[in-house]
Amino acid sequence: MKFAAPLERLIESLRKLPGVGAKSAQRLAFHILRGSADDARALASAIVEVKETIRLCSACFNITDTDPCLVCADASRNRAEICVVEEPHNLVAIERSGFRGLYHVLHGSIAPLRGVGPDDLKIPPLVERLRDGSVKEVILATNPNVEGETTAVYLSRLLKPLGVRVTRIALGLPVGSELEYADEVTVGKALEGRREL
Fold first, then answer.
1. How far apart are the C-alpha atoms of 117 and 127, rounded to whole Å?
2. CATH architecture of the domain with residue range 5-53
3. For the whole prediction, is pTM greater than 0.85?
4. Model pLDDT for residues 59-92, shown as the tens digit of each residue
5. Cβ atoms of residues 135 and 167 within 8 Å
6. Fold assignment, 63-196
7. β-pair type (55-56, 101-105)
8. Residue 91: Cβ within 10 Å count
9. Taking CA atoms, which of 1, 77, 173, 191 is between 20 and 30 Å from 180?
10. What pairs with residue 167 in β-bridges?
């Protein structure tokens, strides 16, 4: 069925979101249509604000609206530990577990079949952060899938010669899953059971 052109454009825009199929996009579009004009403006404004104000932290590459980000600026954090994650949303899962160190976001994982190599990730700034010797441990919390494991092994081989302890989160997380879908207890146990690589 064809809808009015503005509604059709909204449905098509919503379908571009991950996990949103045709029916879900229609439900969301009709929900927005039924809502008030103020609600629609607030949603549109929030989307525009995110696109205009969010940037990467110059230290850890997390997404932020301040530089450095709130985590890097927090003086109570354990600065001797850096937890390396693939994407900013993975950091949220680790943070929920109670981790109180610092982070480094790679913005991806090594995936040769998709044409993603080490040079496409935020690896050189991580190495630079380790040069002064203040970091004692790097915890590799990449996803427990082929790309995440490849990235973890690569980083381990790269970082160990720098004299830092390199650990990998334990397999409390199901292989083939992603950190953002894990609950805080599972992530907490995975951090507790991390192992040397």
1. 16
2. Orthogonal Bundle (1.10)
3. no
4. 999 999 999 999 999 999 999 999 999 999 999 9
5. no
6. Dna Topoisomerase Vi A Subunit; Chain: A, domain 2 (3.40.1360)
7. unpaired
8. 25
9. 77
10. 139, 196
